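Need a sequence for this fold. Nothing fancy.
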């Protein structure tokens, strides 16, 4: 079950002439499944609220009539928007899926197939072709799946829903503008449940601002024109601040007794300073002598891997604000040109923690005297600080990572503590 908030219920009160009673009712939420009344209120909102606003933004009546011809309130979109997964993949699980053998092999083939076009894009925007191919591979499996949700219906559903209405209403207006300008036929405008579109999954705002009509057809077609896809992606990354003279980062090895507190992925230091601390490339060789700053990032735990990440790593994160995603793009781009796989290997006990297990971890930390506050199942700063304190006490590298390995250690520690108290 999940929740749909009060905007559509308020519309029903308006329709029934009961708006004056609205404030006196507790209408914070309604349980799905959707009803005929929900759909009726949604259609009334499109007619009385959305279309007038869109017309005021310059969208033609013909486009509005065509765009909303068969649009319904989409329950599946709301489910996906509300979905909070019980299991969160570990770094290793994510990387193995994102940088699979098939995706590496296919990436090499696509790099060779589109080499001439990619060279043109690199020359113009400064983005190496291997990175453009890696983004393409991560976003839609090299165009194999660009999404099956009707974009207007998805965005209308999310605009109508109160949770993130402001953001999605703006995206909906931009999507209507794309249709109004004739860049893609109505029936072909399909994408992700959240409205991302085309072979590299641009949201409508980015589509309007950064896409390029590279093949000079008069349309910006991110579904069917590889010229438009690659030039638009290059233009986007250039505008995000990509530095053509730098790569994304590299795997490194850490010295013994390293202070993991500075491995936050944000603290910038020159490569020479990291070298002085004993950090080396993963194969043991010295770091490059280039005048470049980097941050140290450990995406799993002290057993590795560790990365020094550069400015372009943060550019990748502006495409998708996930450390795992950015590492996957960078590593896939490297593997596409036959760079070696990671030196660090997945530990045998690598497993995702459920929220219940994180709560158990927090409760055990509190029992052992490491105050992490309430046990809410969210491994925030206090939880990580508590783990770090426990690790320091037990001579474990203090990375503060909430892993299955640490949960097992905490379970043993609390059991030993209880046994000691029982014998007293």
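Here you go.
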């Amino acid at each position: 079950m999940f929740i749909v908030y009060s905007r559509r219920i308020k519309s029903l009160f308006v329709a029934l002439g009961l708006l004056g009673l609205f404030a006196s009712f507790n209408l914070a939420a309604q349980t799905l499944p959707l009803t005929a009344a929900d759909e009726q209120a949604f259609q009334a909102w499109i007619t009385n609220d959305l279309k007038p606003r869109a017309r005021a933004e310059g969208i033609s009546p013909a486009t509005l009539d065509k765009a909303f011809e068969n649009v319904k309130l989409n329950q599946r979109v709301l489910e996906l928007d509300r979905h909070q997964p019980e299991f969160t993949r570990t770094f290793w699980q994510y990387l193995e899926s994102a940088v699979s053998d098939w995706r590496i092999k296919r990436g090499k083939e696509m790099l060779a197939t589109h080499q001439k076009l990619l060279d043109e894009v690199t020359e113009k925007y400064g983005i190496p072709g291997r990175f453009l191919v890696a983004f393409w591979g991560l976003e839609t499996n090299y165009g194999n799946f660009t999404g099956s949700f009707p974009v207007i219906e998805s965005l209308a559903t999310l605009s109508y829903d109160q949770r993130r209405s402001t953001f999605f209403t703006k995206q909906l207006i931009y999507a209507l503008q794309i249709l109004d300008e004739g860049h893609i036929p109505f029936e072909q405008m399909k994408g992700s449940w959240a409205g991302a579109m085309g072979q590299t999954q641009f949201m409508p705002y980015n589509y309007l601002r950064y896409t390029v009509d590279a093949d000079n057809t008069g349309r910006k077609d991110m579904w069917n024109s590889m010229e438009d896809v690659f030039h638009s992606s290059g233009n986007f990354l250039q505008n995000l601040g990509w530095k053509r003279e730098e790569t994304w980062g590299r795997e490194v090895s850490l010295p013994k007794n390293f202070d993991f507190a500075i491995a936050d992925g944000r603290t910038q230091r020159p490569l020479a300073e990291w070298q002085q601390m004993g950090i080396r490339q993963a194969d043991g060789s010295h770091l490059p002598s280039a005048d470049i700053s980097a941050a140290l990032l450990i995406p799993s735990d002290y057993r590795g891997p560790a990365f020094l990440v550069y400015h372009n790593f943060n550019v990748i994160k502006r495409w998708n604000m996930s450390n795992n995603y950015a590492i996957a793009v960078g590593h896939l781009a490297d593997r596409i040109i036959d760079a070696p796989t990671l030196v660090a290997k997945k530990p045998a006990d690598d497993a995702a923690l459920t929220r219940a297990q994180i709560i158990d971890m927090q409760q055990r930390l509190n029992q052992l005297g490491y105050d992490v506050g309430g046990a809410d199942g969210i491994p925030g700063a206090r939880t990580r600080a508590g783990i770090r304190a426990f690790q320091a006490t037990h001579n474990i590298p203090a990375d503060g990572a909430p892993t299955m390995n640490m949960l097992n250690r905490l379970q043993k520690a609390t059991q030993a503590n209880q046994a000691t108290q029982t014998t007293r």
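For context: The beta strands are 3-4, 30-31, 149-150, 190-191, 249-253, 269-270, 280-281, 293-297, 306-309.
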